[in-house]
Amino acid sequence: MSPSLSFCAMFPSGPTPRMSMRATFVCTSSTKSPWGDGNYLYVTEVAGTIRRVRISDGQVSTLAGIPALLVYQNPSADGIGTTARFNVPWGIWGDRENLYVVDRRGYTIRKIVIATGETATLAGAAGVSAFVDGSRDQARFRSPGGIWGDGTYLYVTDGQTIRKVNIATGGVTTLAGVDGVGGTADGLGSTARFSLPTGLWGDGTDLYVTDGAGTIRKIVIATGSVTTLAGTPFLPPFQFDNVDGVGSSARFYWPSGIWVTARFSM
User: Are strands 161-166 and 172-177 parallel, antiparallel or unpaired?
Assistant: First the structure.
């Protein structure tokens, strides 16, 4: 199962919570699905930690980070185990040796060595929200959320786009969609539009994305071609339908988590 999470939080707009009383109240709805390797589940906590749950007996331990209220979380910091810092860790995916975590308010993609808890920044700049394709140090994320990987690349939902991150180099490109331009149109690469993509998963050939407008989208990884697999986009007033059916006859109300029973597995 892929649980979804909605939360409201007061985010400081000043340099640090202790230096400014100004704040922004933000409500977020997205997907936060754990990832597992058969022995453990790895779970991101909004409080700033990555937890490990042993499947055999439910024993829980902290792999990286320390818990803190959202308003007291500092900009992300690399380190080992509890010396690392996260700023609202969100989506997570792993390849049995490393975990890859979306640091949502840190605006970065983090890499955690499972054996040691060593945490490093793979792409993006801590605390800098922008949208830039480029190398590891030049790339920027606007609002990263869901994540999935195929061993060579990571795929990340970011605002109204799907980003592609080279695991070896940290280079970032945009696979589909356009930053800041919402919509529901199918198309190739930048001609496609997303409303609010949240969860995504893949099978090595295609990505499957939950879009907040009430649809499940399919993206051909090789080409960036986007089609609507199921559901029909809703228009205001919001759609409160949960209807079973085939393709466009089905209806979803704000789909979030997704998982694929696939021929491809890490």
Answer: antiparallel
